[in-house]
Automatic annotation (TrEMBL):
Protein name as catalogued: LysR family transcriptional regulator, hydrogen peroxide-inducible genes activator
Species of provenance: Pseudovibrio denitrificans
HTH lysR-type domain location: 5-62
Record flagged with keyword Transcription regulation: yes
PROSITE patterns in the cross-refs: HTH_LYSR (PS50931)
Length: 302
């Protein structure tokens, strides 16, 4: 008779399927490679199946291994929800909360927000993971994160969210740029303007390009930045133009640079949201957290 697998074995299986490498899977689970390999062999023996085909240089997950990993992922997610449900019903906004945040929001929102969160919810311990929207949403859906701060529009599937505020843009140009003479700009003013933007994978790249309809700027394909700081530095050197989100400007991103910031009229803003799984037992808590963040940000604006 087969014994029930341990949650740790299921975690090892999911990690191996996601990483496709024993070493990286072991590192992800904070165990030695030999410990992970031994545990998975024991799981295979217990179940009487092959989960992976091993060679000295590679690992190939069997079709059954992939199918079982999908089931294991759901079991782990339900187990985390079981623990979260107990925590959520014992203390409100207390304990550990794993929060993902995109890099075009986190550095400009969190520093001003954290002191208020600590004062309002002293028992809440936030663990922050910064990344790109698609990666953070995958981590959220797989149960590695409790919530994500991101910007819409973006396809988020069947997830719950609370809109916190709208984030508009300003056109950033060097003081000698022809567009610097403008006080306001719209899509017609910027039609065909080649703008330096973030590299692919950052949702702000697409948001900036779609901020004006039906006409507006295009991306300068010769340059893609990894951060807003890089974009600001390049524009300050007179190498091009860009659109910067208001949240970053308000946080002081451009303060030490000689830039001209032009108001952009009728640009479609992005919506900053707090997003979580509809099945999360902490859904009501997260909604209240979103309301609190909304109030704090509104207060900082006035």
């Amino acid at each position: 008779m087969s014994h029930l697998p341990s949650l740790r074995q299921l975690e090892f299986l999911v990690a191996l399927v996601e990483e496709q490498h024993f070493g990286r899977a072991a590192e992800k689970c904070n165990v030695s490679q030999s410990a992970l390999s031994t545990a998975l062999k024991e799981l295979e023996q217990n179940l009487g199946v092959h989960l992976a085909e091993r060679t000295k240089r590679s690992v190939t997950i069997t079709p059954l291994g992939n199918a079982l990993a999908d089931r294991a992922r759901r079991i782990l997610l339900d187990t985390r929800a079981f623990v979260d449900f107990a925590s959520a019903n014992s203390r409100f906004l207390a304990g550990d909360l794993k929060l993902g945040v995109i890099s075009t929001v986190g550095p400009y929102l969190l520093p001003g927000l954290m002191p208020h969160l600590r004062k309002k919810f002293p028992e809440l311990r936030l663990f922050i993971k910064e990344g790109m929207t698609s990666d953070l949403l995958l981590a959220l859906q797989n149960g590695y994160l409790d919530a994500v701060l991101l910007a819409l529009p973006f396809e988020i599937g069947d997830l719950a969210y609370e809109t916190l505020f709208e984030d508009g843009y300003k056109l950033a140009v060097g003081p000698d740029h022809p567009l610097a003479k403008l006080k306001h700009a719209d899509g017609a003013d910027l039609e065909g303007t080649r703008m330096m933007l973030l590299e692919k994978g950052h949702c702000l790249q697409q948001h900036a390009l779609s901020a004006f309809t039906p006409i507006g700027p295009v991306q300068d394909s010769s340059f893609e930045a990894t951060s807003l700081s890089t974009l600001v530095g390049m524009v300050a050197e007179g190498l091009g133009t860009t659109l910067l989100p208001d949240i970053a400007i308000k946080a002081g991103l451009t303060d030490k640079y000689d830039l001209h910031l032009v108001d952009v009229d009728k640009a479609l803003p992005r919506k900053i949201t707090l997003t979580w799984r509809k099945s999360s037992p902490r859904g009501e808590e997260l909604k209240q957290l979103g309301e609190f963040i909304k109030q704090i940000y509104k207060g900082q604006e006035t």
